[in-house]
Write a sequence for this structure.
């Protein structure tokens, strides 16, 4: 088949309104098989973690070692491939295609769109690792670089690796999944399910009616569950560290899981309230609040911290990041360093991948009306730019203190790094309260968005799933986060994230193929210059239908060939 021609055998005549939210609502809208199997697996894992804690921890640790040593290369190559694929789509002949029907406008303003996807994408992680990661890499450089711990070279390397872990790669991972789902939902009229784009390859009959898509959706729910639980666990650890510091004036070296579990239970109530209010109210309001609070905190540290040092750090960090981007992207453990990669790069790629069902589905939900180029550049460049500023300010403040003899990297637990930095500046109590409130809001908005996505995945792709279903998923998300903290704290969160995301790498690669198959049939793609191939007149608006049947020369009614 000529890739420059629409597929004559694929006829797309979507209904108006979209069929994804048509039909009965309530419990009747729930896919009982997907919901039942997913809930059963989550409950079984939670019970095993509570009843057989030591055994689960041991088995999970062994499985993690096997996965990282056997398939670490797959995470590394796949993450880099997603960056290339996203940029090719943005700047290639598909970039001007709108993710919408003819005449459909965007649902949210650009500022709210960026705020919501950024809040859902990595809000809590920025709070947890904003200071801790740069100072840790500075105090203990990666094994692949020849830098003296604590030196200027080590600080430069620390910022390069931090931006590498939080820059183009994670957002490109989100981009490919979000774009495949957004195009499938808003332009093709399919359900907002992880399995829906595969209709381009296997057909609607197999995916929907024969149940081929259900295992994909169940796996997506499990990935979402453990990915979001990891973030909630990190947020609970950080809030607990802040409360302990305010209460005792000291950092706890080995904090227990009791306080974070209680915090999860309390904040889950907020998640339920937010989930009941919907996207346009709860999540949108919380996301905009996140942006305001984060901006206030960032400006505060920029002003009272080492302002000139931070300004100098921005271009230096960007230069180091881009100059070493390719080597960092392809760094493997073939000559050692496997433990470091498993704890940092592979964990991050697995964490982002485990979040793609959640973040990708959520971004698809809020991105109607954007062009492919606008979507890709908005999803990749805007959050990456914010990450650069965030780590330059907070990570730069931490690096400056570490360089001047304040041991930020060795203070208490990982969650205490942010507070250890703030403790060196005025208005510590107020700044600490802002950090905890911001983390709590990130917790609620992230869990709310994740619950909405799991509701969508378990209700045949409805963009507005049944509210009680969303609330059930919100409660289960808090339960999983609490169990993982009980099983093994931060280590358990990282372990289960990598294990859950490993098989999903194959799903993501399949989504790239399915998206390309859909895009090459789209009549609004930019045509390649070249000779006339047929007399078919390509439609210029959506929904597109079967192209006219070409007639041979000399046949009655045959139109004259027209140049394209």
């Amino acid at each position: 088949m000529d890739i420059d021609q629409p597929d004559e055998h694929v006829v797309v005549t979507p209904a108006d309104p979209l069929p994804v939210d048509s039909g009965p609502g309530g419990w009747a809208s729930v896919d009982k098989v997907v919901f039942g199997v997913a809930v059963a697996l989550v409950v079984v894992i939670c019970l095993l973690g509570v009843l057989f804690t030591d055994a689960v921890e041991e088995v999970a640790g062994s499985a993690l070692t096997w996965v990282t040593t056997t398939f670490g290369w797959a995470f590394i190559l796949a993450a880099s491939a997603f960056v290339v694929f996203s940029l090719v789509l943005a700047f290639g002949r598909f970039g001007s295609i709108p993710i919408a029907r003819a005449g459909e406008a965007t649902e949210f303003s650009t500022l709210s769109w960026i705020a919501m996807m950024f809040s859902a994408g990595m809000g809590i992680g920025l709070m947890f690792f904003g200071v801790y990661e740069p100072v840790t890499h500075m105090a203990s450089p990666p094994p692949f670089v020849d830098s003296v711990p604590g030196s200027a070279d080590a600080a430069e390397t620390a910022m390069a690796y931090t931006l590498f872990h939080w820059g183009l790669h994670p957002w490109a991972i989100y981009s490919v999944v979000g774009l495949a789902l957004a195009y499938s939902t808003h332009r093709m009229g399919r359900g907002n399910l992880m399995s829906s784009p595969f209709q381009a390859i296997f057909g609607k009959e197999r995916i929907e009616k024969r149940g081929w898509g259900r295992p994909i959706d169940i796996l997506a729910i499990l990935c979402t569950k453990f990915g979001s639980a990891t973030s909630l666990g990190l947020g609970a650890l950080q809030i607990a560290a802040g409360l302990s510091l305010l209460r005792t004036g000291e950092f706890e070296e080995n904090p227990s899981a009791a306080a974070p579990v209680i915090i999860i239970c309390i904040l889950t109530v907020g998640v339920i309230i937010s989930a009941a209010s919907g996207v346009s109210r709860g999540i949108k309001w919380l996301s905009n609040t996140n942006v305001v609070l984060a901006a206030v905190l960032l400006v505060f540290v920029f002003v009272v911290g080492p302002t000139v040092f931070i300004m100098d750090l921005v271009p230096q960090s960007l230069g180091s990041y881009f100059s070493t981007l390719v080597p960092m992207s392809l760094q493997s453990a073939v000559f050692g360093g496997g433990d470091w990669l498993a704890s940092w790069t592979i964990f991050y790629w697995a964490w982002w991948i485990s979040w793609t069902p959640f973040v990708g589905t959520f971004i698809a939900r809020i991105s109607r009306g954007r062009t492919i180029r606008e979507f890709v550049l908005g999803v990749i460049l805007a959050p990456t730019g914010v990450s650069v500023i965030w780590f330059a300010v907070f990570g730069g403040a931490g690096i400056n203190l570490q360089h001047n003899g304040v041991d930020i990297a060795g203070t208490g637990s990982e969650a205490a790094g942010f507070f250890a930095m703030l403790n060196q500046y005025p208005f510590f109590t107020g700044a600490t309260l802002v950090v905890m409130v911001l983390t709590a809001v990130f917790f609620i908005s992230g869990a709310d968005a994740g619950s909405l996505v799991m509701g969508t995945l378990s209700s045949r792709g409805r963009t507005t799933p049944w509210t009680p279903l969303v609330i059930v998923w919100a409660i289960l998300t808090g339960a999983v986060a609490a169990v993982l903290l009980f099983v093994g704290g931060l280590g358990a969160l990282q372990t289960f994230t990598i294990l859950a995301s490993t098989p999903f790498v194959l799903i993501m690669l399949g989504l790239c193929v399915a998206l390309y198959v859909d895009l090459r049939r789209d009549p609004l793609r930019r045509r390649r210059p070249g000779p006339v191939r047929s007399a078919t007149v390509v439609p210029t608006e959506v929904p597109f239908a079967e192209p006219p049947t070409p007639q041979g020369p000399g046949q009655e009614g045959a139109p004259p060939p027209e140049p394209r």
Notes: The longest helix spans residues 53-91.
